[in-house]
Amino acid sequence: AQSVAQPEDQVNVAEGNPLTVKCTYSVSGNPYLFWYVQYPNRGLQFLLKYITGDNLVKGSYGFEAEFNKSQTSFHLKKPSALVSDSALYFCAVRDGVKGFKTIFGAGTRLFVKA
Amino acid sequence: DADVTQTPRNRITKTGKRIMLECSQTKGHDRMYWYRQDPGLGLRLIYYSFDVKDINKGEISDGYSVSRQAQAKFSLSLESAIPNQTALYFCATSPGTSGKSHEQYFGPGTRLTVT
Predict the structure, then answer these.
(1) Count of CB contacts below 8 A, A vs B?
(2) In a 10 Å sphere around its CB, with 0-12 CB exposed, 13-18 middle and 19+ buried, how is residue B83 labelled?
(3) Which residues 66-95 of chain B have a CB within 8 Å of chain A?
(4) pLDDT digits (tens, 9 = 90+) for B10-41
């Protein structure tokens, strides 16, 4: 069965510092991995995905994520955080071989302090 | 995202009432989904539809039903609302087949409170 874990409920960083939001996953087939962001009173917005190819994927708003197969992780990163990055971030996984359902993590709230 | 709209945005209803949440999209996508979001639980899939004639249950379909009236419209009904259905409900879409078929595009959500 597919599953996603986001071990941190909340991440606090200072503006200008690098940020990391952690995600680990479990699938039986090839993982399709996603990050979405949710701003207050808004729906989720797609940030980036890993399907195949280069382990480092770049997405919207300067975010990137690194796929690590041996650690079954897909951590979201940004070199320099902005206050406007404060939001709720969701990691999601889909089994690329056996299914179409996308399983979402519980979410990590990011606070960036000025 | 204005391409996926949901009505109403907020609704308060009483236990036992029937309620319908509506979703419309102008993205031309074949696939549509209904999720509910609860704090600390992420998003859970209620129903999904790959085209007008294809509707499937998700992981938490009990107490819900759906109707795919057209490619652009997918509505969710609570036949007899109960308080533990209080949640934020999202509609989402994705293309059937294309390089971007994996991403989903979400509506702004409907906040439902059942008293």
Answers:
(1) 50
(2) exposed
(3) 90, 92
(4) 999 999 999 999 999 999 998 999 999 998 88
